[in-house]
């Protein structure tokens, strides 16, 4: 055809505009998500033929003590990990955001400092903080020689009781500014509309904070809880980097992310129990566990449009 | 309302004290790293971690850089993250443009599929993802990692860009259509210049996230010459674990690009954070 | 030559029907104004002619050629939007020349045509500015320039002046009338403004709920409204509608309602309409009284500047002979 019509061209250009993104996402993100549903039904160590086993992976996961105990431990420790982080973020985050919302000297400067760790790579943060908390590291020097808080150095990451909270502290140090920024923007948003009214009604500062500011913080809190929850139940970078896929010491830092990784790629070079089907099953179970939070997030985002 | 947020001098002092304490907590590890990365030997790090170096040993940085294959890692990271930035900004903006501005039967469904990726992290699907990458023969290649990382960042990017595109008045596009512009021209000449801030946000988020990504390269890369700096750091650590001053120097080298990106565009960064939510 | 014929045009958004069987003849070189209440489908009809909306059924003929399936750019029509829809990132010159650069014309040609248009619209001094640095009236002129440069057979305007203040609106209205004489093209124009409609139009099309109520010249519609809706819509202030039972001394011919324009009610001691004055509005050159008839129908009366009408006083009115309209129960004009 000598002259293709505008409409035909427009149709093809639309296809050409949509396709690259849709293909990229479809092949490397969406398809794998759907693939969970299929792969969880097979037993496959990554090479060789796949064996269809139906729901056996799930039966193993919930019935076989070998897997069940790992699942319970990983999930439980994941909950503790989450609780420490979210507690720290909400308490410190609210407190610091509130202080920054006042007419504090240098509040923009402080805000920049507080935000500094956020863009840093998880791997760098993990290695950096690990160096800091080693038994011969600066923090222990400070505790033992500087402040005399303890007679001997504390093995933060070596102690099975302390290791998980220490990792949670790393996470909180890294991500705290996320909470501060979200809460701060909620406070700033409310101040324009509501606070004036409350002040006109003669409320004093404490009453205003309680009656006006805290209620509007609820959405920010929920958002933080949901996002952190989705993140810590799939992301185990700190543990993988510092404690390995076995969640040393003695699986005291094992969480869902490490369990999932181990089930597909093995904990050590000698692992025998690798099964991509099991990994998919664990992924699916985790997805279902965080799905309510995730759906909540999606609905909130869509409503915003 | 001013009254509420103004502080009396005593209050100001207390607030300053608390903020300084938190600043110290934030800066402590970074400061220690800077200080000790300049010390001539391990002994000084052990004995007096808070003291200034006896001699300022800037050579530690070059030793770290050349010691492990740092330059290779660094280059790989640069290739991966810059490719991701280009791929994600182009693909996400074109897809978002079609979804928002040229809807058709099924475009809502496609948008829904993207939103699934916003809510379910790709890590949970690492097993099927591995199968797909393997079957495409992309294991242990930079291209494979680039495609996987780009795809993992598509959903949030599409989400941010659709929100922005919806705010562009539809009459502008009607006018362009009357003027005879085809979708490519409308996208490139009319719409894209108007969503530049969102594009900058997406580019920045993508850069930082792909520079920092550890998990996906860990799964898909085997040979050391392909390692990005996050994996390289693990190698580096095997080699220099006991030489703390070099460890600190290496870690700081790794942080430089993200800190620079952050300093250049902290405003977009914070905006992107409150818009797109945390996904690294 | 640019005569438009619209035949049996239907349009729906999903399940809601917006245009119902529109039939319309628009003569070459005429100025047609669409009026009607908000939501009646004026913009939709205009956008369907432009090609921005797909028709559902029917034909749109431009000089005998069915354009209803063509792309907007191929239709020889240009449109000026209510929000102006100027491209914010481009200069005035780039805005005006955009259609030409899309059509891959060379730089010199574009520059020449843009220059001509700018001269016509007195925009020469602003060519390098961005739209954000222009006043409302200037932006409006750029929007018109963008339409002119394509040299279309038909210009479509969707409430082009509604974002301007009253004074500028008058000025732009005169400019559009002048432009139309210079350009010799067919104009189709949507407005809410009675004065714009009456002064600019050769033909007014009154729409209601996606249907054409009446087509005619401004004075035709004013003097011979086809039905009660058109009678109430054309003319300002609105025509009074009085239940036939309240009127005496007229041959009602079975009408349900009698319509009288405010300017055709006179104060007359012997008048058959008796009411009580509720409000008086003095505008200087003219005054209006609002009187309630015994059955509480409120009628508007035009008064001369010097009048002695007082609120709460009784008022007797008579209808200027031959100036009443009779409407049947179905709203159609009788006789
Ligand atoms: N994109 C759309 N989707 C669904 N319904 C629409 C759409 N655009 C318009 N409508 C509906 O079509 C009807 C006609 O709309 P249109 O914009 O043509 O009215 P209008 O006469 O121009 O009104 P106004 O004087 O307020 O501009 C309205 O009821 C409107 O709600
Ligand atoms: Mg309209």
Question: What's the short story on this structure?
Answer:
The complex is a heterotrimer of chains A (305), B (280) and C (335). By secondary structure, chain B is an all-alpha fold. Chain B has helices spanning 2-5, 9-36, 42-47, 59-67, 70-101, 107-119, 126-135, 142-166, 170-178, 183-191, 196-212, 215-220, 229-240, 244-264, 266-276.
Give a description of the structure.
Chain A is an all-alpha fold and about 300 residues long. Helix content of chain A is about 75%, strand content about 0%. Chain A has one domain (about 80-305): MetI-like fold (Orthogonal Bundle), CATH 1.10.3720.10. In chain A, strands 1-2 form a two-stranded antiparallel sheet. In chain A, helix 8 runs antiparallel to helix 11 (about 275-305). Chain B has two domains: about 1-60, no CATH class; about 70-280, MetI-like fold (Orthogonal Bundle), CATH 1.10.3720. Chain B contains 15 helices and no strands. The longest helix of chain B is centred in the N-terminal third of the chain and has 32 residues, at about 70-100. The radius of gyration of chain B is 24 Å and the shape is globular. With about 325 residues, chain C is of the alpha+beta class. Chain C folds into two domains: about 5-230, Rossmann fold, CATH 3.40.50; about 235-335, OB fold (Dihydrolipoamide Acetyltransferase, E2P). Chain C has helices at about 40-50, 90-100, 105-120, 135-150, 165-185, 195-200, 220-225, 230-235, and strands at about 5-15, 15-25, 30-35, 55-60, 65, 75-80, 155-160, 185-190, 205-210, 210-215, 240-245, 255-260, 265, 275-280, 285-290, 300-305, 315-320, 325. The longest helix of chain C has 18 residues, at about 165-185. Chains in contact: A-B, A-C, B-C. Chains A and B meet through helix 1, helix 3, helix 4, helix 5 and helix 6 of A and helix 1, helix 2, helix 5, helix 6 and helix 7 of B. Magnesium ion binds next to helix 1 of chain C.
């Amino acid at each position: 055809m000598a002259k293709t019509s505008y409409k035909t061209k427009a149709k093809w250009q639309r296809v050409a505009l949509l396709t690259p993104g849709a293909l990229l996402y479809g092949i490397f993100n969406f398809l794998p998500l759907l693939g969970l549903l299929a792969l969880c039904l097979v037993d496959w160590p990554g090479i060789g033929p796949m064996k269809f086993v139906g729901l056996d992976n799930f039966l193993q996961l919930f019935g076989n003590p070998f897997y069940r105990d790992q699942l319970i431990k990983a999930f439980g420790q994941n909950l503790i990990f989450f609780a420490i982080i979210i507690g720290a973020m909400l308490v410190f985050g609210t407190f610091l955001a509130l202080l920054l919302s006042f007419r504090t000297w240098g509040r923009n400067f402080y805000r920049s400092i507080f935000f500094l760790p956020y863009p840093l790579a998880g791997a760098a943060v993990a290695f950096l903080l690990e160096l800091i908390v080693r038994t011969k590291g600066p923090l222990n020097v400070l505790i033992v020689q500087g402040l005399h808080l303890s007679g001997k150095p504390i093995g933060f990451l070596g102690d099975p009781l302390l290791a998980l909270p220490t990792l949670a502290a790393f996470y909180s140090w890294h991500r705290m500014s996320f909470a501060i920024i979200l809460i701060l923007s909620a406070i700033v948003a409310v101040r324009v509309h509501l606070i004036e009214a409350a002040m006109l009604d003669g409320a004093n500062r404490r009453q205003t904070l309680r009656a006006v500011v805290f209620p509007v913080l609820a959405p920010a809190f929920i958002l933080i809880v949901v996002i952190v929850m989705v993140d810590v139940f799939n992301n185990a970078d700190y543990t993988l980097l510092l404690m390995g896929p076995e969640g040393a010491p003695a699986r005291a830092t094992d969480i869902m992310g490490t369990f999932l990784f181990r089930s597909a790629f093995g904990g050590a070079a000698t692992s025998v129990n690798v099964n991509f089907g099991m990994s998919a099953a664990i992924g699916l179970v985790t997805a279902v566990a965080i799905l309510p939070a995730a759906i909540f997030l999606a609905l909130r985002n869509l409503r915003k449009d | 309302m001013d009254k509420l947020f103004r502080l009396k001098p005593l209050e100001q002092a207390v607030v300053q004290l608390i903020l300084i304490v938190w600043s110290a907590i934030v800066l402590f590890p970074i400061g220690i790293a800077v200080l000790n990365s300049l010390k001539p030997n391990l002994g000084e790090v052990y004995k007096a971690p808070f003291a200034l170096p006896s001699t300022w040993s800037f050579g530690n940085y070059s030793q770290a850089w050349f010691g492990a294959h740092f330059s290779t890692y660094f280059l790989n990271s640069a290739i991966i993250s810059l490719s991701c930035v280009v791929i994600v900004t182009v693909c996400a903006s074109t897809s978002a443009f079609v979804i928002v501005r040229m809807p058709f039967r099924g475009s809502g469904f496609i948008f829904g599929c993207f939103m699934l990726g916003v809510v379910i992290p790709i890590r949970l699907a690492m097993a099927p993802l591995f199968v797909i990458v393997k079957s495409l023969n992309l294991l242990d290649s930079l291209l494979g990692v680039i495609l996987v990382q780009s795809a993992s960042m598509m959903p949030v990017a599409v989400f941010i860009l659709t929100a922005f595109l919806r705010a562009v008045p539809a009459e502008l596009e009607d006018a362009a259509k009357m003027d005879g512009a085809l979708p490519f021209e409308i996208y490139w000449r009319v719409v894209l210049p108007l969503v530049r801030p969102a594009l900058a946000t997406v580019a920045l988020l993508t850069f930082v996230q792909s520079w920092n990504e550890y998990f996906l390269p860990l799964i898909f890369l085997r040979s050391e010459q392909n390692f990005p700096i996050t994996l390289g750091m693990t190698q580096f650590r095997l080699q220099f674990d006991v030489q703390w001053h070099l460890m600190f120097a290496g870690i700081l080298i790794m942080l430089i690009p993200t800190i620079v990106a952050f300093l250049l565009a902290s405003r977009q960064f914070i905006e992107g954070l409150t818009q797109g939510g945390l996904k690294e | 030559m640019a005569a438009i014929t619209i035949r049996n045009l239907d349009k729906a958004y999903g399940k809601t029907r917006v245009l119902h069987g529109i039939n319309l003849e628009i003569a070459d070189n005429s100025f047609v104004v669409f009026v009607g209440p908000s939501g009646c489908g004026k913009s939709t009809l205009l956008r369907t002619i432009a090609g921005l909306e797909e028709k559902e059924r029917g034909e749109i003929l431009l000089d005998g050629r069915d354009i209803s399936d063509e792309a907007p750019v191929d239709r020889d029509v240009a449109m000026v939007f209510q929000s102006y829809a100027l491209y914010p990132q481009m200069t005035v010159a780039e805005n005006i020349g955009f259609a030409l650069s899309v059509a891959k014309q060379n730089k010199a040609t574009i520059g020449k045509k843009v220059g001509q248009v700018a001269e016509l619209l007195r925009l020469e001094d602003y060519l390098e500015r961005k739209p954000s640095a222009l006043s409302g009236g200037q932006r409006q002129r750029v929007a018109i320039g963008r339409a002119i440069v394509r040299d279309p057979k038909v210009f479509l305007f969707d409430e082009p002046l509604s974002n301007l203040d009253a004074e500028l609106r008058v000025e732009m209205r005169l400019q559009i009338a002048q432009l139309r004489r210079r350009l010799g093209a067919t104009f189709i124009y949507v407005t809410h403004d009675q004065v714009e409609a009456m002064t600019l139009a050769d033909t007014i099309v009154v729409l209601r709920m996606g249907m054409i109520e009446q087509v005619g010249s401004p004075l035709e519609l004013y003097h011979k409204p086809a039905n009660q809706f058109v009678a109430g819509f054309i003319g300002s202030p609105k025509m009074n509608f009085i239940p036939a039972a309240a009127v005496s001394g007229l041959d009602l011919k079975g009408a349900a309602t009698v319509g009288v324009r405010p300017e055709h009610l006179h104060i007359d001691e012997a008048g058959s309409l008796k009411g009580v004055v509720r409000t008086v509005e003095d505008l200087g050159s003219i005054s209006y009284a609002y009187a309630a008839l015994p059955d509480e129908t409120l009628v508007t009366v035009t008064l001369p500047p010097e009048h002695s009408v007082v609120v709460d006083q009784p008022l007797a009115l008579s209808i200027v002979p031959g100036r009443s309209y009779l409407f049947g129960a179905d709203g159609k004009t009788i006789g």
